[in-house]
Amino acid sequence: MTARPIAHGRASGHVWLVGAGPGDPGLITRAGLEALRRADVVLYDRLGTADLLDECREDALLIDVGKAPGRQAMAQEEINAELIEHGRAGRRVVRLKGGDPFVFGRGGEEAEALAAARIACTVVPGVTSAIGGLAAAGIPVTHRGVAASFAVVTGHEAPDRSTEGVDWTRLATAVDTIVVLMGVGRLESIAAALIAGGRDSRTPAALVQQASTPAQRVLEATLGEIAVAARDAGIEAPALLVVGEVAALRDRLALAPSGPLAGKRVLVTRTRRQASALADALRREGAVPLLLPAIELERHADAEQAREAGGRLRAHEYGWAVFTSENAVDTAFELLEAERVDARAFAGVRLCAVGTATAEALRRHGLLADLLPAEADGDGVLRALLEAGIAGQRVLLPRAEGARAALPDGLRAAGATVDELALYLAAPPAAPSPRTLERVRRGEVDVVTFTSSSTVSNLATLLEGDLEPVRSAIVACIGPQTAATARDVGLDPTVVASDRSVEGLVQALLEHFGGDADPEFAE
Ligand code: SAH
Question: Are 13 and 91 spatial neighbours (Cβ–Cβ below 8 Å)?
Fold first, then answer.
């Protein structure tokens, strides 16, 4: 292959072979995550990596080299060639592999090919499914007094073939715990070979399908019966077979089930900038956030309006300012700053914040809200303001262009003078991630969260009006207003936060799922 021109000004590229862990995105290493976040190019296998790809840079080139429905996996030579080509072009390349790169992952071959091409290569080890996947199912690979040794073998080579790579007869009694990867299709002959080699057919065994993912299933049976039991239960790849006394320890260890949100895939539709707080809060509860920002805030300020509002603020003409979202606070302050107006101009202005997150945003600008309406819907806010004596006053209302007219109309009807300050247009993003959209369309999400009315209508737009795939998901809204919009588009919000904040939304989800938390591992 001929050398290519260098793309990024680096002398030469670098390839990281990164282990993604068995499937739970929380099980990648810190080094692996850092490499992934910085990568220019990511070549990934589907197995165990889907939720990690959200971590990649938005402009990173993502190449799926694994098997997909109706498509062959890329041949190893082609993968090597791609790694070399991008490496030669001076790029940071991550080769993301399920589990550990060197456990039946062909990572060694890739490292060899890169060495031959003189491209720097670093391996970032991963949690192999052979150990971590079993642990996720509550099975310890060793246990004092029960298992002092283990072997990890491939079941890919049929035991009845003369070219077999595993000596099943010697293996059968050589170690306490036997873990077989890639063996689901050959369970019968594997079990027969181990029994023929002298392993007792009554030895406990288990199969763990999709270990450490929301779809994890565990099947326990004796070695003699596991193949038939697997067929009856419809166990499919990817799955781990474990043979040995440890397979019977699950009940005894009774590892605490993770929280009620564990493994739930939750769609986050807020802006990319705001998504991380919600995503982090969800992750802390064991959920797997899927980010699909449904809004991009497009600045849409009217310079004339801003100048006027700035002037009136400076002249202390406002009795009240009403902020209905965190975005409204931050954008309004940016806009006013351009008019050389800062928090001092709010001296004497009474402040209403809708929702604790909005109040918190005000606090970051050095201002404490005077009024936090108990009910965050339009009527509740209006009622609270009227009770607080807003009638007859001049009110500043900075918010999104095209927001509902009910609030300013109600205030005016009560005799207030309302100056609206248009801040932005909440538009659907120009280039939503096709990968994430595809996952939503396939019905992969368990929960859809909406944090404003525009996230609802824009998700509908992104899905081209077809909300069928999210209909079976739990719909969770940050407040009654958002829930009303969700009902307008035909969804049925079953979770509505009582506190209009990220914490409130997560709390409401915990309460919703808390009742029916399955104390057993998903089966
Ligand atoms: N490098 C990987 C293994 C690749 S071989 C690792 O270290 O885990 C692919 C096989 O690994 C699958 O056929 C299956 O047997 C096993 N495997 C990988 N991830 C798994 C998972 N989440 N659940 C069950 N088995 C898994």
Answer: yes
Q: What is the pTM of this model?
A: 0.74
In DSSP terms, 21 is beta-bridged to 99
Which residues are 288's β-sheet partners? 265
CA gap 396, 420 in Å, rounded? 6
Q: Which tokens belong to 301? A: 């300020």
Using the mean position of ligand 1's atoms as its centre, give its distance from the Cα of residue 220 in Å.
18
Distance 146 CA to ligand 1 centre (A): 24
- Which residues does 34 contact at the CB level (< 8 Å), separation at least 6? none
Task: Encode burial over 296-319: b for 16+ CB neighbours within 10 A, e otherwise.
Answer: bbeeebeeebbeebbebbeeeebb
Residue 6: enclosing H or E segment and its boundaries?
A: none
Q: Does the beta carbon of 180 sit less than 6 angstroms from any atom of ligand 1?
A: no
Residue 514's pLDDT is 85
Residue 111 · residue 80 · CB < 8 Å: no
Give 38 Cα–ligand 1 centroid separation in angstroms.
26
Rounded CA-CA distance 131/147 in Å is 14
Q: Using the Cα atoms of residue 32, residue 33, residue 36 and residue 37 in order, give the sign of their dihedral.
A: negative
Q: Mutate which of 28, 178, 240 to test ligand 1's pocket (most atoms within 8 Å of Cβ)?
A: 240
- From 106, 128, 129, the mutation candidate for ligand 1 (largest count of ligand atoms within 8 A of CB) is 129
State yes or no: cis peptide before 428, omega within 30 of 0.
no
Domains of the chain plus CATH, in order, are 4-127 (3.40.1010.10), 131-248 (3.30.950.10), 265-295+430-521 (3.40.50.10090), 298-427 (3.40.50.10090)
Element (H, E) at 180: strand 177-181
How is residue 130 annotated by DSSP? Answer: I
The number of angstroms, rounded, from the C-alpha of 292 to the middle of its chain's C-alpha atoms is 10
- Number of neighbouring beta carbons within 10 Å of residue 422: 18
**Count of other CB atoms within 10 angstroms of residue 163:** 6
Could you report the per-residue pLDDT of 73-112, keeping only the tens digit for each?
789 999 999 999 999 999 999 999 999 999 998 999 999 9
pLDDT tens digits, 456-493: 999 999 999 899 989 889 999 998 889 999 999 999 99
Contact 421, 306 (CB under 8 A): yes
Q: Residue with the nearest Cα to atom 2 of ligand 1? A: 99
Q: Compute φ and ψ for 234, nearest 5 degrees.
A: 70, 35
DSSP character at residue 434: H
**Number of Cβ atoms within 10 Å of the Cβ of 276:** 14
Name the residue with tokens 């936060």.
Answer: 497
Supply 391's token pair.
């009638």
Nearest to 240 by CA among 226, 254, 251, 253: 226
* 282 touches 448 (CB < 8 A): no
pLDDT at 432 over 90: no
CA of 19 to the centre of ligand 1 (A): 11
